[in-house]
Amino acid sequence: MTTLTIDGQQQSFTPGETIYEIAERAHADIPTLCYDPRLKAFGACRLCVVEVEGVRNPVASCTAKATDGMVVRTATPTIDKHRKTLLELVASENREVDVDPLRGYASQELAMLVDRYDARTGRFRGKASGKSQETDQNPFILRDYDLCISCYRCVRVCAEQEGDHAISVRNRGFETQITVEFDGDLKSGTCTFCGQCVQTCPTGALADRKAIRATELPGPIEKARTVCPYCGVGCSVDLQAKGGKLVGVLPAMDGPANEGALCIKGQFAFDFVQHPDRLASPLVRREDGELHPASWDEALDRAAGGFMKARDMHGRHSVYAVASGRAPHEAAYAVQKFIRVGFMTNQVDNCSRA
């Protein structure tokens, strides 16, 4: 059995695992800014460095492979001083550290680490990096690169998880910039507006433009876990509400079907929920030819009567059903049962087949 020692505790591991992965199992709290468990380890921020006995310099735990008998210390005065200095340098380039949590799932990571290591000193304050793309007026994603720390998580999640390669990096040092091909707008490139770049950004440099409209609404942000209604995949989402209104959607990172991923509809298309034109009750057409609000019993009786009238006048094959791809398995089953048992016909289909 291969083992190593982390902070005095012996841990077994599988060859090929990194120090960071083993440390997570051991509940050692190693800070990171460029790390996302869904992405290949990058080792850019260097916050995850640890001391390894027999190795002269600290090593990046997210990229360093564990070896049998290794002795690791994840937090020492020297390592903590190193992390504080790094955070001071990172924060010095940004317009601000504290941003509204409505900006995105990971938007509070930098602020939390700066507070954890008491790095709000401002001693390196000076030249800033990143230039916000204020001219990009797409309705979904705010590109506020004055807050960018060049962790490249947005670029990597777009390439590795979505396969879109819609954004990239140009230049180096203080001139580093997240960009779209030909330095254009997101909608002019290959961006599908899935929102993955927003939800992985640790500073809020990429933000949910729709959600931050609710920044001024009173009250705390409330969350509720549910399932996206748009298709049969069953993506788990966390709805964000504020002031009694639905203001945003977060992908559930532990969702068994999506594992933090969403499409443009699941991420941003929720305005119908509280739209003033949304029907609040069933409508039936009365003798005057106009639609009027009705009870569910009256509406269902009217629908059942219409089905029965069609069957009696034109035969059982005059009735067919197309089930929605947005319906769960139980609803699809009920539709086919309704047609096959209620009308003794197999005229049932599903739009997902196309």
Describe what this molecule looks like in 3D:
This protein is an alpha+beta fold. The protein folds into 4 domains: 3-75, Ubiquitin-like (UB roll), CATH 3.10.20.740; 94-209, Alpha-Beta Plaits (2-Layer Sandwich); 219-278, N-terminal domain of TfIIb, CATH 2.20.25; 283-353, no CATH class. The chain is 24% helix and 18% strand. It is built from 8 helices and 16 strands. The strands form 6 sheets. It has a 5-stranded mixed sheet, with helices on one face. It has a 3-stranded antiparallel sheet with strand order 10-11-12. Strand 1 (3-6) and strand 2 (9-12) form a beta hairpin. The longest helix is centred in the C-terminal third of the chain and has 19 residues, at 296-314. The two termini are 52 Å apart. The mean pLDDT is 93.
Features:
354 residues; alpha+beta; Ubiquitin-like (UB roll); Alpha-Beta Plaits; N-terminal domain of TfIIb; five-stranded mixed β-sheet; three-stranded antiparallel β-sheet; 8 helices; elongated
Shape: elongated
Structural class: alpha+beta
Number of domains: 4
Q: List how many beta strands DSSP finds.
A: 16
**For the residues shown, what is the average pLDDT?**
93
Stated plainly, the CATH topology of the largest domain is called Alpha-Beta Plaits
**What proportion strand?**
15-25%
The H/E string reads EEHEEEHHEHEEHEEEEHEEHEHE
List the helices and strands and how they pair.
Blueprint: E1 3-6, E2 9-12, H1 19-25, E3 49-52, E4 59-60, E5 71-73, H2 77-92, H3 109-116, E6 141-143, H4 153-162, E7 167-170, E8 177-180, H5 196-200, E9 206-208, E10 222-227, E11 236-242, E12 245-251, H6 264-268, E13 283-285, E14 291-293, H7 296-314, E15 321-323, H8 329-342, E16 348-350
Parallel strand pairs: 1-5, 15-16
Antiparallel strand pairs: 1-2, 3-4, 3-5, 6-9, 7-8, 10-11, 11-12, 13-14
